[in-house]
Amino acid sequence: MAKNEQLQEISQLKDIVSHAKEYGFIYPSSEIYDGLQAVYDYGVYGVELKNNLKRLWWETMTRLNDNIVGIDAAIFMHPTTWKASGHVDSFNDPMIDNKDSKKRYRADVLLEEKAAAFELAGDEGRAKSLLAEMGRLMEAEDLTGIRDLINRENIICPISGTCNWTEVRQFNLMFESQVGSVAEEATSIYLRPETAQGIFVNFLNVQKSARMKVPFGIAQIGKAFRNEIVARQFIFRMREFEQMEMQFFVRPGSEMEWYHHWADRRMAWHRAIGIPETKLRRHDHEKLAHYANAALDIEYDFPFGYKEVEGIHSRTDFDLKQHQEFSGKKLQYFDPEINQSYIPFVVETSIGADRLFLMVLSNAYKEIDAGDKTRTFLKFHPAIAPVKAAILPLTKKDGLPEKAREIFETLKMDFKVIYEDAASIGKRYTRQDLIGTPFCIAVDHQTLEDDTVTIRHRDSTEQERVPIGELPARLAHETSFKRIFEKL
Length: 488
Ligand code: GAP
Fold this sequence. Notes:
binds glycyl-adenosine-5'-phosphate, single chain, 488 residues, 37% helix, 17 helices, alpha+beta, globular
């Protein structure tokens, strides 16, 4: 990527971050204490948008698919869960400290950044060979080799400016705490690093209680926690985040068919919520995790480049087998169609609610030339927009506020709407554009005569006159999830 393109992208991310704060989407956590790195709070409109996205995902999974049901497992799980899943032993990142600045870095990220610098300087060959060498060392878990490579490439700490590095060590990403009030009796417990394990350990509970037949899926939305060392790019990589995961249990041997099915379905979902095909791509993993026989990422072209939004993984029978072994409890399914018992294979779809939020926000953020000024607005699909309509009396007198309030009181029963009468109508339209409200309903003097209002459309700014009586049906049609579901 050329340097000026990169600068433009950085400034676009900065614009999105400051817009998100100023207009109530995302605030830094505990900001009055200077914030907490990689932790964020959702604001007034952010929480509405995030809830809409979660509800849309949930209903797509559990309502459109009659063979998918949901659960809500606890964040804390028996510690052996994480031994069985492999997280205690291998959910690690290679870390290196600079002895002068005392700053800690991810060793692979330092090398990736060096490769990016070579690429920026036009030396693509050197960038590629550096990444290949790093890949080889990472695969062999050769931590000394990684440190030697960092030294050989003269990588310096941006804070101290020195190459005075420690050894590379593996650092587990799970947050650990203690349960039990007496120190000697306390047991280590982890904040879950993924929601999936809550689904695996409940596999038979769900199958039996809901009388599910393979193939079937279990969906879940919930918080996950990772002690990410490289926490950058706003809400892209957080320490506390939310996952929306679905494990689809299938007959062994049929997993590849289902893997392709879910990859296609999830891609279609991203397009249906308004993400252009040109900004999405599929990245097939060449190097697979030990438990997977196929994996891909759905990537979006963020202001900082193509990055993973969702992962589709064919996880074989690894997790259920491990839990069966560690718990000593059978986790098998009797398949009446073939008269056999087996441990099902699993195809997983896993998306971060926060990353989805960032993709939707980045995609919606529009700055367009409007003659003498720049017009900024958020072009959300009406079904996911935080506020569906604003009811605005043209002036604060002549009975217009009363009439507008009447409309507001009716519409609020079915839709998230707001009433606003302060400032000029133009300023109020602008404010609604900035939070992405698709429709502004203006109440004027004609309203009092013929019970009609104007609807101003956010994207085109065009206005049309409609009878008040038609508003509920119009809004219901425009903001319904059905419009997204029909595209799937
Ligand atoms: N159960 C599979 C799993 O957890 P993952 O690729 O580590 O796989 C799945 O995570 C998704 O969770 C990612 O595609 C991303 O959307 C989200 N995610 C992972 N780590 C995250 C983080 N630190 N901050 C925000 N979202 C994250």
